[in-house]
Amino acid sequence: MDLSIVLVSYNDVRRLKACLASLRENPPAAEHEILVVDNASTDGTAETVRREFPGVRVIANPQNAGFSAANNRGAAESRGRFLLFLNTDTLVPRGALTALVGRLASDPSIGGAGPAMVRGPGDYQVSFGNRVDFMAQIYQKFVLNPRWKRALRKRRDERSVGWLSAACLLCRREAFDRAGGFDERFFIYFEDIDLCVRVRAAGWKLLYVPSVEVGHEGGATTSATPALRAASRFEYRRSQLYYYQKHNSAASRRLLRASLRANVLFLGLGGAFRGEAGRTLRARYRALLREEKAP
Q1: For 127-171, what is the HEC assignment?
Q2: Does residue 252 belong to any structural domain of this protein?
Q3: What is the CATH number of the domain that holds 107?
Q4: Domain count, the chain
């Protein structure tokens, strides 16, 4: 088996169906398999996929195990020498995966490759980067991202990068396994950056391939309701703190903690902590900050 395509689903059956339909209509030339790891969805995802896409293997988790753990399970139960981690809110055009697999297969020094991610014609997302620490994140958000979004409309040159988004991340299985797979302490967010750091540390390079484009809506599941948006913001911060603990300096961690304290203050002023659900969320933030201060 050349290629295993792993999708993690959580209550996103409509977009998942569209993604699987795009894979069915535009399959890669390589011998491949598709696995959907469902994180205990309540919208009938598993049953729908089994009924409408009988060639797709469904792995049903009994609870929401998180993005990292679900991807690891899909990788462990797959057979391909290449692993494609693909979000449910993507659409794959004709020839895209064939080109991406071909590029990775052509150079054994490449451990992972990612395409250009687009919301629509000319609307590019920044799905790659280099170092991630407090000052680098500020610089990327306010300087590099706007610059790159403009530049990507004109430039199609490949580049070696520090990380690639797991919205569509093609990995050489050997590199994925040598790096130890996704760190399951990341429930969601930063798990792809962390994996990429370890793939590069193991001796492989990562390649951004903008000649290949894949459609990506972005934030499809985590922004569906106000409650999910609030939970998503918290999980982002929790993963960000953990990433900084693993990879960044004490000074960078102090700056992040100060930023997070200010963020919690503004959330409170904006009414995010009203009601029982809000009080629970505030308690979770406070516990997170106490945990991060612990030696």
Answers
A1: CEECCCCHHHHHHHHHHHHHHHHHHCCCCCCCEEECEECCCEEEE
A2: yes
A3: 3.90.550.10
A4: 2
- Are 181 and 195 within 8 A, CB to CB? yes
Per-residue CA distances from 172 to 50, 64, 81, 207, 283 (Å): 28, 27, 6, 12, 41
Question: Among candidates 126, 152, 151, which has minimal Cα distance to 139?
Answer: 126
CA distances from 22 to 16, 39, 111, 216 (A): 10, 22, 26, 12
User: Which residue range(s) make up the domain with 281?
Assistant: 226-293
Structure tokens given for 209: 């391939």
pLDDT at position 92 is: 98
- 75 and 43 within one domain: yes
In this predicted structure, what is the pLDDT of residue 226? 78
C-alpha closest to that of 127 among 35, 213, 66, 203: 213
Tell me if residue 268 falls in helix, strand or coil: helix
Q: Which of 216, 244, 278 delimits the end of a domain? A: 216
Q: Report the alpha-carbon distance of residue 127 to residue 125 in Å, rounded.
A: 6
Is residue 221 in some structural domain? no
Runs of H (alpha helix) within the chain: 13-25, 45-52, 67-76, 96-105, 134-139, 145-151, 173-179, 191-201, 226-247, 250-269, 275-293
Q: Is the pTM of this model over 0.85?
A: yes
Tokens of 69: 């753990």
For residue 124, give Cα distances in angstroms to 53, 57, 127, 186, 196. Answer: 30, 31, 9, 26, 21
Per-run averaged pLDDT (10 residues), the chain, 295 residues: 96 97 97 98 97 98 97 98 98 98 97 95 91 92 87 87 98 98 97 98 97 88 72 94 95 94 92 91 92 55
